[in-house]
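dude i think i finally got it to work??
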Amino acid sequence: MDLGISDSTPRQMFIGGEWRPARGGDVMATFNPFTEELISRVAAGTAEDVDDAVSAASDAAEAWGGRPWTERANILREVAARIRHDVDRLAMIDVDNAGLPITAARRDVLRAADEVDYFAGIAGETKGFSNPSSADVVAYTLREPYGVVGRIIPFNHPFNFSAGKVAAPLAAGNTVLLKAPDQTPLGSIAFAELSRGLLPPGVLSVLTGPGAEVGGAIASHPGIPRVAFIGSVETGRAVMRAGAEHIKHVTLELGGKNPMIVCEDIAPRVAATEAVKGMNMTKTMGQSCQSNSRVFVHDSIADEFIERLEEICSEIVVGDPRSEATEMGPLAYEGHHERVLGHISAANEDGANLVCGGGRPSHLSRGYFVGPTVFDRVTPRMRLFRDEVFGPVMAVIRWSDEDEMLEQVNGLELGLTARIWTNDVKRAARLVARVQSGLIWVNGNAGKPRGIPFGGFKHSGVGKEGGCLEELISYTREKAVMVAV
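look at this
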């Protein structure tokens, strides 16, 4: 299948090793967020298509799960090799369908290959243990795959999530139904084509279509005992409710309104540089659940921090995501662009001080762009303080009292990530202990090493992901066995 996305033939779903149209024959459009033009139509699946995929996955589950883990690992390594062999083409699909700058898209594709390789390397860790109970009883445990797993991914890292987020369940011996993002489905379709011929029929199905219908059917299907979802808190609640009917094992990686705490002993220019980096403005245009969208800056350095922040943001190159020089592309789709602009409008209404940005840069006449946007003097009463924007919009909150600041940091029902900047090691330890987040960086923005678990506190999620042993184990069930001898 040529995914140069140049023809008008609707893209089909991948079910049971075959390309199929939706049962109802419907299609849905997907667009280039830079040109705002239609680039493809994809099958608009239904619950009936999910039934077909579950049937194919169930038929393949016993054989796939029964293979030696070394065989599954070798297949996954070949998948990773194919990804690395085709980096530029795969990256360009995400550029044209999701607006990722080409340099960021390449990194996304390579990270996906790394994650697939990682899970191939630890596939043998799905093992149990023996318990020396008594002379006449041998007691041990086994870890077995669930069988069929559903994975529902969001629009911001289409290819990366398509490949990386199926690696753990496949390595553990499960078959997988992957629900492609409604708005950016072409990366998932590309991954299905890439893995065709390596994964046996039915081991991986890729479904496109409306999230409420196709994702809802996956979450509620009695033949899918394990579901993992990445997305908004609201949709995560719906997935959990649907899964509860059949007592599914559900994990959720949800939203964040993540704090960055800057203490008075940090140079304002360093803090401003790291705030922009941690906001992921030049990678995902702020469309990242990990972005430090609330920056708590000590009042004594806040004025200079804001000056430096405005200077840095003004130098970011915003434009055509296909250009190697571009640092920041458009938002992924029209509806999200309108939502982000709505958050900006609300911040203005609430009295926040707009420092820079606030809309499409003046040199661009089309595309779903929002320039790097900073609001100063944001307070807890403002909507921007509490609402996740999921775009390049940073809220700066000034503080002088540590206890009051921490009360504000922890005052939301979200707790995904946090960043703490201070040169005082005792203060750093104290703040780490008190900040309610599942992942915390201290004086850094270097990403997350492979193997470190990622997951949130409170409404930011349930379970761990991010390329770690905990994620692999979560796709197995533990069985205890006692043998009388």
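Residues 1-6 have pLDDT under 50 and may be disordered.
im so relieved honestly
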